[in-house]
Amino acid sequence: MFTIGLIGAGTMGNTHSRSYRQIAGARIVAVCDIDGEKANQLASAWGATIFTSMEDMLKSEQFDAVDICLPTDLHRQAVELAASYGKHVFCEKPIALTVEDSEAMIEACKKAGVTLMVGHVVRFFPEYRAAREQLLSGRLGDPAVVRTIRSGAFPSWSGWFKDDSRSGGPLLDLAIHDFDYLRWCFGPVRRVFSRTLTTKREGMEHTLTLLRFESGVMAHVEASWAYPQGAPFQTSLEITGTKGLALFEKDKSNSIVKFGGPLNQQGVPDSPLSKSPYALELEHFIECVKHKKEPITSGEEALASLKIGIAAFRSAQTNLPVEMEGILQ
């Protein structure tokens, strides 16, 4: 049995709770949230102990790891505290809002000898994995055009998203998924240019970011909270190469890979999942802890992706391109 103390009983906490149901041998034994009612609602399904103080939970309950689903500005404090009690740590993305906080979290876990994994779940979505496999196999040829979209209505269920100093806005909450995925596909980024449109409606923002990779590849990343309430959440990925095209759009029945023109095309196998990408991600974390392996989305990996987000944020503020070599804090 692998036991978990879950920190944060909001939207992501509940998503993770459902995901652990799909993992054999995983069990939530403690739930912590400053809102005792929320903690009780989540904990009751597991028969877990309820806490409103993380430190009380760490002192009182025995478990293998903590799963941190808190607002981003609280990540450092929570990770450092968990590590000080010798707990392995899964932390939702982004790892933090600054390089300094991220490095402190990584160091705290290293010093304590515990695993740190950050929730960049897109790496576990089958469509995104399939597109990367097609790219790395050479079937797409040399990449030429790369586009991603991640958009929807403002996340009005929690007020902290409105404050960029807490959430990082759509660049660090939404686009960070694609920054991480694209870096996984194409390697280090050299230069970032980003523009942001802020509407009169509070919290509604739209961002466009251009990434230039060290390899010469350029990628266009769109992330938006500017859609009206009730609008569906949309994601898409396009990788066009000299030999083929990988295209994925959320809610379409198939991802498509085309070779040699419109008459020669095939669907990327959907591989219906018995487990959600979140369950696959959390299962990977558990396996890494058990076998003392480095997670695919380690603290260092998450920091490298965060730096792209920080560069995009600075570029949007100055309307100037930002060189990655200058992102030190």
Automatic annotation (TrEMBL):
Coiled-coil intervals: none
SUPFAM superfamilies, alphabetized: Glyceraldehyde-3-phosphate dehydrogenase-like, C-terminal domain, NAD(P)-binding Rossmann-fold domains
Record Gene3D superfamilies: Dihydrodipicolinate Reductase, domain 2, NAD(P)-binding Rossmann-like Domain
Domain GFO/IDH/MocA-like oxidoreductase, chain residue ranges per copy: 128-245
Domain Gfo/Idh/MocA-like oxidoreductase N-terminal, first and last residues per copy: 2-120
GO MF, any single term: nucleotide binding
Cited Pfam families: GFO_IDH_MocA (PF01408), GFO_IDH_MocA_C3 (PF22725)
Transmembrane residue ranges: none
Protein name as it appears in the record: Gfo/Idh/MocA family oxidoreductase
Native source organism of the sequence: Paenibacillus foliorum
